[in-house]
Amino acid sequence: MNKWQLYDELIEGVPSNLKASEVLVCRNRTMVTCEIGSGMAMTMDSGAYPSQIQGSPVGKSLKDLAALIKSWNFVDASVGLAAMNAYYNSLQQVNELKARISQLYPDQRNQTEDAFLYYQPMVEGKKVATIGHFAYLDRRFAPICDLSILERVQEKGDYPDSACEFILPEQDFVFITATTLINKTLPRLLEICKGEGKKPQVILCGPSTVMSPTLFQYGVDDLAGFMVLEPEVCRQFISFDNASIFASGKMIRALKPEGMI
Questions:
Q1: Residue 108: helix, strand or coil by DSSP?
Q2: Distance CA 41, CA 25 (A)
Q3: Does position 153 have pLDDT exceeding 90, yes or no?
Q4: How many Å apart are CA 84 and CA 62, to the nearest integer?
Q5: Neighbours of 152 (CB within 10 A)
Q6: How far lies 191's CA from each of 1, 106, 195, in Å?
Q7: How far apart are CA 24 and CA 159, in angstroms?
Q8: Higher confidence at residue 259 or residue 63?
Q9: CATH code for position 165
Q10: Domain ends where: 39, 74, 95?
């Protein structure tokens, strides 16, 4: 498979007529805004590869910014992913996808489409792997399933990300952080999950998740992302980390259509 095919299809889906009205790159998160919405992504360390951004990105074509997802400068690629999300995770596109939009649980803290709450009853007694050390795993998953956490920067008990070739084929559920689009590991992770034998349920999750049905064709079963509805609240969070990111919008989920292989 052409390793860039998934990226090229995601980029091609972004309309050419949209322009970026704001690009905000901060230490932990990046936000891009256009006429129809705002999108965000985790900001990853740039590495040694030079940036491809020349001059201000504000006013540039959203599609051109989305193409930065292919850059080996990971700050550029973070901008690219946020630009994609400004389109794919806009209310207009979320409605077209017929994605499920969260409501608050009675406790007023958790949202109904939180992937780790939604799947909690299903993973009980199962083999579960996560690519990324998500919040609340120790509380929500670890006590009830056989949990393997794979991380590039490991905490105590985590496997190195290089263990994916050995661990993922054995799982019932695999939760993958969408930041794997930035560091270019997602195509290989999806290939491993689609390998011979048992195929795990694959959930691409986190606020960086691109809500594009294209991902279903590559082996993703569930997209669990985030839609920014209050750009100012999101901006405050990204700039000053003084609010919950989830106060700026809604968690959203979309399942692979039945019958799609």
A1: coil
A2: 10
A3: no
A4: 8
A5: 14
A6: 10, 39, 6
A7: 33
A8: 63
A9: 3.40.50.11590
A10: 95
